[in-house]
């Protein structure tokens, strides 16, 4: 079963390179290592925003 994933960091894929924010349909075994290294995330997951601290 294929699931949708969003690319966080480009990587070589099927005779080319992926692009950041591109959506790929991957099987669990294809996605496993890419998830561990942070190159992809589930497409339905919202991006984490970086909060800044006020130094007042």
Structure commentary:
- With 56 residues, the protein is an alpha+beta fold.
- The protein has one domain.
- It contains 1 helix and 3 strands; from the N terminus they run E-E-H-E.
- It has a 3-stranded antiparallel sheet.
- The longest helix has 9 residues.
- The radius of gyration is 14 Å and the shape is globular.
- The termini are far apart.
- The model has no long low-confidence stretch (mean pLDDT 87).
Mass-distribution shape: globular
**Total beta-strand segments:** 3
How many helical stretches? Answer: 1
Mean pLDDT: 87
Compact overview of the structure:
This protein is of the alpha+beta class. Helix content is 16%, strand content 21%.
């Amino acid at each position: 079963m294929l699931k949708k994933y969003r690319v966080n960091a480009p990587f070589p894929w099927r005779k080319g390179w992926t692009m950041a924010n591109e959506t790929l349909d991957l099987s669990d075994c294809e996605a496993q290592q890419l998830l561990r290294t942070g190159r992809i995330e589930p497409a339905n997951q919202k991006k984490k925003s970086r909060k800044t601290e006020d130094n007042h």
